[in-house]
Amino acid sequence: MLTKVIQNRFGTVTATLLLVMMPHALRAYPIDCAILLCLAGGWPASAECSNAKAEFIRRITPWPVEPPLQIWRCPMGGAALKFELPPIQRIRDEKIADQSKLAKFVSERLQATEGADVDISGSEFDFVRSIRVWDVRHYSHTPRGRDDDCSEEYSIWLGTYGTQGNFAWKPTSPKLAPSWVLPSRRCSSSNRRRGVGVEWEDHERNQGIEWVPY
């Protein structure tokens, strides 16, 4: 059972979480509850966790880039969920063809997401706040002109989770990006980068990363 697998990995996070994922309800579990538990447990081998991780990665695969964990969709306290992401069809209906405008459109709508419906401010939920999404919309560091001048141009956004699991984007700079996001910042005609990456820690602080180029 999924709950038993998770318990074996890191013990009981909270009684509320385990009640949400009782074995008899597994076939009807919200996917974000599964993502929450499977992420905490280090993505243990099970059909539920395989599906959860696939959805976690799918959400950062452009376009649009979504929060990989949408904890406001996991009713841990039984409260009604208040936040809904804009469906892709609605984005298309607004006839936003340019990708940069689409990225801005989505980012603006993800600035003020709801958090969890129970208190997750304790250290046992640090794994939620460890998730960071790196959206490298454009990066280049290339020669310019005849005097060996170089031009570093970029548009990089970082998505992070707040105390209650609320998600927000903010612009960031190449110097703050880890090496798996930007392997090199040297000046070269081939030094260009574009993609989305996500990093996380499980409940035992084991790290994981995933990079999706485009």
Features:
single chain, 214 residues, alpha+beta, five-stranded antiparallel beta sheet, 5 strands, 23% strand, disordered N terminus
Could you tell me the radius of gyration in angstroms? 19 Å
N-to-C CA distance:
37 Å
Mean pLDDT: 78
What form results from the Cα inertia axes?
A: elongated
SSE string, helices as H and strands as E:
HHHHHHHEEEEE
Largest sheet descriptor: 5 strands, antiparallel
Structural class: alpha+beta
Helix content estimate: 25-40%
Within the largest sheet, what's the order of strands? Answer: 3-2-1-4-5
Q: List unreliable stretches of 5+ residues.
A: 1-28, 79-99, 105-112
Strand content: 15-25%
Strands, total number: 5
Question: How many helices in DSSP terms?
Answer: 7
SSE topology:
Layout: H1 2-10, H2 15-20, H3 31-40, H4 47-58, H5 88-93, H6 99-109, H7 126-129, E1 132-144, E2 149-161, E3 167-172, E4 192-201, E5 207-213
Antiparallel strand pairs: 1-2, 1-4, 2-3, 4-5
Helix pairs in contact: 3-4
Protein model, in words:
- Strand 4 (192-201) and strand 5 (207-213) form a beta hairpin.
- Residues 1-28, 79-99 and 105-112 have low confidence and may be disordered.
- The protein has helices at residues 2-10, 15-20, 31-40, 47-58, 88-93, 99-109, 126-129; strands at residues 132-144, 149-161, 167-172, 192-201, 207-213.
- The chain has 214 residues and is of the alpha+beta class.
- The relative contact order is 0.15.
- The protein is 27% helix and 23% strand.
- It starts with a helix and ends with a strand.
- The chain has 7 helices and 5 strands; from the N terminus they run αααααααβββββ.
